[in-house]
Amino acid sequence: MNLFYFIGSVAGIAVLVGLNVLLFGRRTSALDLAALERRLALDHPGFRAGDGVVAGGAALIEDRADGGLYLVRAGGAYPVARKLSHGSVRRLVRNGSRLDLRFADFTFPCARLAFASEVEAGDWEVRLKRVGG
Fold it and tell me: What stretches of the chain show up as alpha helix (H) in DSSP?
């Protein structure tokens, strides 16, 4: 009898998720650097935007106030931001103009950043190692 309830619950959840996708789609938020900087200023008092870059489905923005670095990733209707601190980046691998990051946070485990050039990827790799590694 318990297996019957379990299967019914899983089927009900699957129907609700499918209906949600059918009605609202699977779009993700677009990353506009100026809009992200304004949002971070609202969410984090004292934040002053420094250098920033949109790299694929994620963005990196420096905080001039404290030298911190924020990673913002598109996730659903709204972007998700994390302030990178010392020890938060578990692994950083550069592959040409791409950076693959693995974090210590299980709710935000990884990110892949695709830059326009290898030089830009190298510059941000140095910044990530300084702040997050």
Answer: 2-24, 33-43, 118-132
User: Phi, psi (5° rounding) for residue 29?
Assistant: -70, 145
What is the Cα–Cα distance from 45 to 38, expressed in whole angstroms?
Answer: 11
3 state SS of 81: strand
Q: Torsion angle, CA of 66/67/73/75, rounded to 10 degrees?
A: -10
This prediction's pTM: 0.74
pLDDT in tens, 70-116: 998 877 667 888 888 888 888 999 999 999 989 888 888 888 899 99
CA 130 vs CA 62, 86, 96, 126: distances in Å? 12, 8, 20, 6
Task: Give just the sign of the alpha carbon dihedral 45, 49, 52, 54.
Answer: positive
Three-class DSSP category at 93: strand
> Which residue reads 């963005």 in tokens?
59
How many distinct helices (H) and strands (E) make up the chain?
3, 7
